[in-house]
Amino acid sequence: DTAVSQTPKYLVTQMGNDKSIKCEQNLGHDTMYWYKQDSKKFLKIMFSYNNKELIINETVPNRFSPKSPDKAHLNLHINSLELGDSAVYFCASSQDETGGATEAFFGQGTRLTVV
Amino acid sequence: ELKVEQNPLFLSMQEGKNYTIYCNYSTTSDRLYWYRQDPGKSLESLFVLLSNGAVKQEGRLMASLDTKARLSTLHITAAVHDLSATYFCAVGVDDKIIFGKGTRLHILP
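^ inputs. structure came back:
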């Protein structure tokens, strides 16, 4: 019974294609995130959604668009994929409490390879 | 902009030794997290530190937080090979959780 689940786990696609990564959490959390982990293992926050509202949009290309159909889902859609988009993408969720968010719980990651 | 700096970024140490990983951050926060990541795996939460002076211990790992100095430490006692992994600290500010670059820890038998 996975708390944060992403699909697919691996994604290989050609440059120029459009792809989506899905994420679902069953923790009842208020906030969901997308992180990108590059080849050096650096984790960069891309987006954060709280109660279906985008509250952070880091300086990522507008080819990336998060879509949240409901509180439990935050999907990542990528248009016109480029070689530099190859990375591992992690979805995460956290619960809002007084003073800010609790720890983030992560999905298993999606390894995207653009060829 | 919040910056989170870890050091060292790479650490190779022998079993049985002690060592400390440092995490400095640039903006006031009282929410500090430590995560572990094994190769090819996701991130696993280790510690959540929510107040100045907080100290938490689990096995051979102990984490502490000094919010006045904007510093957290992860101390490893008598390291064993199973602790080899990448360790991340992360800082929560408003609705962001920002990660350091990670410390790749390799423990030699």
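The longest strand of chain B covers residues 85-93. Chain B touches chain A through 24 residues (CB under 8 Å).
thumbs up if we can close this ticket
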